Amino acid sequence: MGLKFVELNKIKKTAKELEIEVVGENETILNPITQVLIQNKDVEFAEYLCDHPLSNKRRLYVRVKKGKPEEILKKAVKQLEDEVKSFSKNFERKKKK
């Protein structure tokens, strides 16, 4: 399983909002990102949208109460990355036993 290129295009950016187009990804990654975002107390609203089920383009929208939306999104992605690494380490340990 190789890495694939995901294209990100900024659609809207204000002090409290960020909307990006994500090309080449689907709910598999956008749903967990959205779930982490909405658990953040500084996030007012987070959602991903799809214009058509067969489209390879999605839009991720984040509106924050405080802070910078880009920084909060980066933090959410980092948190997911850490969770996946932790899961992988635990899985490997259990597999060896």
Instruction: Give the biggest sheet.
Output: 4 strands, antiparallel
Global structural class:
alpha+beta
Give, in spatial order, the strands making up the sheet with the most strands: 1-2-4-3
Helical content stands at: 40-55%
Total domains: 1
How many distinct helices? 2
- Provide the low-confidence segments as ranges: none
Total beta-strand segments: 4
Structure description:
This protein is an alpha+beta fold and 97 residues long. Helix content is 42%, strand content 30%. It has helices at residues 27-39, 69-96, and strands spanning 7-13, 17-23, 43-49, 57-64. Strand 3 and strand 4 (57-64) form a beta hairpin. Helix 1 (27-39) crosses helix 2. The model has no long low-confidence stretch (mean pLDDT 91).
Short structural description:
This protein has 97 residues and is α+β, with helices and mostly antiparallel strands.
Using brief descriptors, characterize the structure shown.
2 helices; alpha+beta; 97 residues; Gyrase A, domain 2
Write the layout of secondary structure elements.
Layout: E1 7-13, E2 17-23, H1 27-39, E3 43-49, E4 57-64, H2 69-96
Antiparallel strand pairs: 1-2, 2-4, 3-4
